[in-house]
Amino acid sequence: MSYLARITQTCPTAVVLLVDQSGSMAEPARWNGQTVAKAQAVASAINTLLSELIARSRRDDGYQPYYDIAVLGYSGSEVRSALPTLGSEWFLTPEVLADNPVDVRDVRRLRTLPDGRQMATVMREKVWVRPESEWNTPMAAAFGEAHKLLRTWCAKHKGQPCYPPTVINITDGEATDGSPRQLAAAAQKLRSLSTADGNVLLLNVHISGSERQPVLFPASADDLPEDRYARLLFDISSPMPALYRDEIALMTGRPAAGGARGMGYNANMTDLVRMMNIGTATSNLLL
Questions:
Q1: Are 227 and 192 in contact (CB under 8 A)?
Q2: Does 1 score more than 70 pLDDT?
Q3: What is the CATH number assigned to the segment(s) 13-285?
Q4: Which of 63, 213, 219, 236 could cross-link 95 (Cys pair, CB 3.0–4.6 Å)?
């Protein structure tokens, strides 16, 4: 499988973000030089990514439908769209997203200057995803809902050389709706979906508000701490295609070995942003 199909108006790709909105997401994390709730930091990071996907799709004659985008929040016993969906449609195109933010506000951003100093600037930010944090972590159900969405999407594009869908799961804890075996089965079912260009890519980013050393894009379970949950995330995450190796090497500071998994463990918010950018780094495939 190549993971090199061109992304066009008639052969788009899909991006699905799964967002843990359980109660622990109310815990603090550092974001843009401030201490905020993890839920707030993650929502802001996702809104920045959505703005980037919209910008990539902008052409002189308008927005091209390069991406079908869905954001699924999960907490309690529920999985729901975290976007301002239209009717029952959970996938939105860049044009629809651009025209339907739920808010526009000023946000403070820190910019690092060439001499290492940091400068605070205020920018206008469109908001589509709002922070939520309550109850449990139905991650297996989120994988199941993503499977339903993408099974229909892949069937719609059957036989077309579409770049495979990318799913990025953002969480700060373990699933509360199934055993590790059940979670692994749900993830494998999701990853088994495919287009003519390859299988669904599943990235899992475990975020932490602590200062513990993160593990990003490990190539072997031996790169991980002796932690059952870390090993589970490694097992259920997709190997990253060669397309992403340069970006992974730039982020991690080491050559990207073949088989590097799309996962992060104990990632901070900066790591999350960079991993989401790498997971959607398909700009050179756009036509």
A1: no
A2: no
A3: 3.40.50.410
A4: 63
